[in-house]
Amino acid sequence: YFAPLIVAFPPLAQSTVYSTFPQTGQTYGLPPFGAMWPGIKTETGLPEAPSGGQLGFLSFSSAYTSTQPGQLHYSYPSQGKLQPHSISQDNAATLCKYMKCLEIKETLKLQWHTLPTSVSLPAGAREQDEVGRRNSVGKAKGKGKKSDSSPPADSDLERIFLWDLDETIIIFHSLLTGSYAQKFGKDPATVLNLGLQMEELIFELADTHLFFNDLEECDQVHIEDVASDDNGQDLSNYNFLADGFNGATGGGTSGGATGVQGGVEWTRKLAYRYRRLKEIYNNYKGNVGGLLNPMKRELLLRLQSEIENVTDAWLSTALKSLLLIQSRGKCMNVLVTTTQLVPALAKVLLYGLGDVFPIENIYSATKIGKESCFERIISRFGKKVTYVVIGDGRDEEFAAKQHNMPFWRISTHGDLVSLHQALELDFL
C-alpha cells in the first residue's frame, strides 16, 4: 500500500578523496633556531647557518627585533610560509638564551642539553662607550720588553676564560664618564662622586705602595717581563727611595749587556721593583686594607658598599661566575685589561679580586693590544686549551674573532646572570 511512497536513495560517498596528512617531524612550541658561531652576533641581526646546517636547524631569514616589552618578532623559512608573529616574554628569554648557547656550543662542541624556559633575558640595547676608555687609569704609556717567562701551564687545563676588567667585572670608567648613570637611570652627581673617590684611591695605592711613580713610563705587559734581569738580591733591607732609579729618564740611557732598554744597572733596579710589586700583591691580595691607613680603609669599605648599591650588585653578580670557574678543577680565570699593569693591580686589589686573579694571570694590553695579549696567553698555555673571551668592548670581541675564540658580551646585569646560568648548566 505504501510502496509508491518509498524512494530509493543511493548510498552516501565522499565527494573528495582525502589523503593522510604527511608528518614532517616538526616539533611544536618554539620554532627551530639557526646555528651561530663566535663573535658573529651583531647589531644588524643574526647570520644564517651554513649550507647543510651543521646543527640541523633552520636559519633565521631576517634579524630578530624587539618592538616592545614582552614581544619578539621574527620570521623563519618553512614550507608553510608562516608569517612573523610574537611570543611571550618567557619564550623570548628562552629564545635569546637558546641562540646564545648555540653560538658557544658550536665552537666548543659541547654536549647540548634542553634549555629551561626560565632563563633571564638581558635587558636594554648595546651601548658603546669606547671613547677614552682605553687606559682609563694609566696616565701614560710606558716602554718595556715583551718576553713572558711565566711558568708552563698545568697539563690538565681544559678551558681558560679571558676576562676584561672595566665595565665587565667592575664598574669604574663609566662612573667617571656618566654613561652608567645615563644608561641605568642613576643620579649623575652621585655616580660621578663615587667614581672620583675610587680613582683617587687607585692612584694613591699605586703611587704609594706599588711604585707607579717609578714604573709609569716603563710599563710591562706581565709581571714577569723583566724577571730575567733580576739577580736575586735580597730586598729585605733594600732602600728603593735611595737607589737612584728614575723610571722616566732611565729609558734614555744606552743599552747594556742584557740587550734591553736602559743600562744593566737600571734594568736590574727595574726588575727589583717588579719583584717587590709581586710580593706586595701576594701578601695583601686578600687584605688590601693592610696597605691603607685607618681613614682610607674606612673610605674604601664605604665606597665598595655604595658602588655595589648604585650598580645593583654588578661586581657580586660577576663574582658568582668567577668563583664557579675557579671551583672547577680544569678551568682558569685570566684577566686581560687595557689599563696599565700597576694601576690594574691596584684596581684588582681595591675591588677585592686579588684571590680570584693570581698576579701571574693578569695581563695589560695597554702597549700591545688585546690580540697580541691573547697570542702570548696561547703561547703560555698551548693550543689544546679552549679559550672563552668575556668582555664589553669591540677590541676584545675583534681579538676573540681573530683567534677563533667564542665571545660572551657583557652589556647589562642580565648578561652576567645569563653567563652564570650557562656555566651552571655546563654550556660553558
TrEMBL record:
Main localization (coarse): cytoplasm
Names of required cofactors: Mg(2+)
Gene Ontology terms: cellular component: cytoplasm; nucleus
Gene Ontology molecular function, alphabetical: metal ion binding; protein tyrosine phosphatase activity
Pfam family, one: Hydrolase
Residue numbers binding Mg(2+): 164, 166, 392
Location(s) in or outside the cell: Cytoplasm; Nucleus
Region of interest (Disordered), ranges: 123-154
Biological-process GO terms, alphabetical: cell differentiation; chromatin organization; DNA repair; negative regulation of extrinsic apoptotic signaling pathway in absence of ligand; positive regulation of DNA repair
Record keywords: Activator, Chromatin regulator, Cytoplasm, Developmental protein, DNA damage, DNA repair, Hydrolase, Magnesium, Metal-binding, Nucleus, Phosphoprotein, Protein phosphatase, Transcription, Transcription regulation
UniProt-listed CDD domains: HAD_Eya
Transferase keyword on record: no
PANTHER family associated with the record: EYES ABSENT, EYES ABSENT HOMOLOG 3
UniProt protein name: Eyes absent homolog
Gene source species: Anabas testudineus
Origin organism lineage: Eukaryota, Metazoa, Chordata, Craniata, Vertebrata
